[in-house]
Request: fold
Amino acid sequence: MRPLFKFHGGVHPPTHKAESTGRPIAQAALPSKLVIPLHQHVGNRAVPVVQVGERVLKGQVIGRPEGRLSSAVHASTSGTVSAIDMQLVAHQSGLPDLCITLIPDGKDEWIAHSGVDYRQTAHTDLRHLLRQAGVVGLGGAVFPSDMKSYSHKHQIRTLVINGAECEPYITCDDMLMRERAGDILRGAEVLRELLYAEEVLIGIEDNKPEAIAAMQQAVLEDKHAHMEVIAVPTLYPGGGAKQLIRVLTGIEVAAGVRSTEMGVQCFNVATAYCVWRAIAFGEPLLSRIVTVTGNVEHAQNFEVLLGTPVDELVAQAGSKPDTERHIMGGPMMGVDLPSGSVGVTKATNCIIEASSRLFPPPPPALPCIRCTRCADVCPAELQPQDLYWFAKARDFGKAQEYHLFDCIECGACAYVCPSHIPLVQYYRFAKSEIWQREREAQAAELARERHEFRLMRIEREKQEKAERLAQKEKAALAAKASAPAPNPEPAIAAAPATADPDDTLQMRIDAAVARAKEQAAAAQPKNTDALTAEQQAEIDAIEARRAKIREMAAHAGADDEPPKSNQG
Amino acid sequence: MWSSPFITQPSSVSQIMLRVLLALIPGIALYVWYFGPAILVSIALASVTALATEAIMLKLRNRPIKPFLSDNSALLTAWLLALSIPPLAPWWMVVVGTAFAIAISKHLYGGLGNNPFNPAMIGYAVLIISFPVHMTHWLTPHALGGTELTFGEQLGYMFNGALPAGLTLDAVTMATPLDTLKTQLHLGLSVDSIRDMPIYGHLAGKGSEMVAIGFAIGGLYLLFIRIISWHLPVAFLAALFATAGVFHLVDPVHYVTPLFHWFSGAAMLGAFFILTDPVTSPTTARGKLIFAAGAGLLTYLIRAFGGYPDGMAFATLLMNICVPLIDAWTQPKVFGKKGGGK
Reply:
């Protein structure tokens, strides 16, 4: 037995997984339309490359990746582009984003595509294929996989394949492993090759014995060397990449550090599966497995075309009439969807139909009694009660000092809080406020630079003017010199510079500017200068949520002053 | 829109407080057994006062009354205060102490969760400073076989200040075992000869030692169900034991055994029920150890060298002052940042 490691804290919420594992993965019916967002990944939004009215084929690129960190978006089936416009999307912000609406023609006609032999293909080309196939992390982070599969030789020792699936209700990875273990492992092999990794550790929580057996069986059948399927203890959030890496290897990847720097890389099982389909068959990421569960007649996993409206999907599982909302993801970290009309995206691993019977609203929040149950369960080993206090008091500097940005928002703290304080909301609020302030500081810095340049220009013009004047007078003097001149006047322009009251003022301004600069440098928020690309991309997304969070926080509790905006 | 997590554990502040109240019951039962039911009247009186004060303060502060009144925290303060003062204390003392604890030391600091000092200990401190004489009249345990008041006579004294004809207060009350020890030591007696007095039992005071054991049993229950963490009681009792042990080893004639200190006064109540108040104790594990050890040391010093019969309350309050500092100093390293780096 391989020795496993522990991570701090964690909780055991009821899993509710059995509901949706009783049936095999079903192919979801072709929907009446597909609403495909162009921003389904971390990084830059894809740029539309089709026109309204254009007929597209299944697998055809409809959004090309823009910039280094981006990914392609494809037509999930053949049909006609009916709109390219802003629509509500499956995202926490609840804000609209650019989407391509596709009316399927029912033929499901593929574009010409073919795979390559990964052993015969250069790594650069493989990564390019992944980017063009729109492969991104399907565990929820949707980080472009090509950007994660770059490594020098001997840099990465361990490739972790994440099949832990720790969130309650979600079973899409479980079912994928049960039914398609072979392709997952072949994809893992491609990734291992790309990363030059020495070993592949596949971590699966021990509440999924069927998946573990299927994966182990596939390892044996296909004679994968360097691969090991490992059952890890069921403990939320054990499926977080950092937590799983910790459990399997003992390595702790700190916030803001790339795991590759510590010799580990981690991919989700569904991502590995898509890598294989993309490389070996040339199939772009057009569909994914989605668990539909909760308040439905028959919970089940579906293979769903990206862009399928959530309403049409949940109908196939028999969503009950008293459903009040759709939660995308699990109950611990999921997102309350703004509408049932949004399309399924690459990040949609699960739709939980929620009713107030299944998910009763929490009782009103009481004040924090510092019982530290939150600290006991925090996998990042933070002091959530202190962070809550600082966020509430808007002491954001202190919140950062107490490692606010190490929070992974897993929700374990809020889950155990006996005062029912929506802790994670407070942390999201504090983070977004800090980002906002940083942006404002940057804008101020820019304005200051402009102002300084203007002062410099004015000064230069003044000097030039004075010089011209001096020249003129010199010329005049020279002209006078030829004539007899009993009282030659001293040149005005030669007066000492310091005597000029304007100049002392200028010096004071300069000094003040320098002081202000120093202060600004000193007041610069810590912790945030080493943002990873993921975090940087997330900033924009989270910014959009700020307004919402404030609004939500306004209802946060009986004793709690709602956080207000800066202007408040 | 609602945001994650969408599920919470079915625990609540009122449930936690209720369990702490339950854990006090073994100690209270033994209290009644050895000293009569007067303590129950004190507890009831304190409870009513605490709830009434809580309601009035919530009303004055424009806070919702029902969720806070049902959180059981005021009741806990009331019980702890009633258990800290003599059971025969006049009714107005119970009322004054409890009302002060709730109104001043809790609500004026912001209510539940915001008070820096343990409210019950503030109430105790106010009473012992204001009414020192009343605070020394402890009932004698009936195991001593002396004159005993009936329940009716106890009530008569508590509410009217009247004793049955022919009885003086000194005949039915006594100083605490800790207090007696201190006075007798001052009179030049040795620890051994003092311990031979009839008021002392196997560990400490007759009756009161059993009550202390009752509190310890309740405390172990709280440890078992993880309402409290081990750090506080263990560090407190260890520090008290170690300090008392050093003095006892050096000079056994003048310094009583560590076990005597464990089972005297409010040590057990304090270790498991007072220091463990989460609001007024540190949040970090190391902080809890420092806080409780400090309280243990101070308790001993006040008992051995101070002017008050017991040191628990003042030791707790003194350590309460240090909590923000201790918390700031003992911040643990976070995930991934333990290896020397920042």
In short: DSSP finds 14 helices and 17 strands in chain A. The first helix of chain A runs from residue 123 to 132. The longest strand of chain A covers residues 79-88.
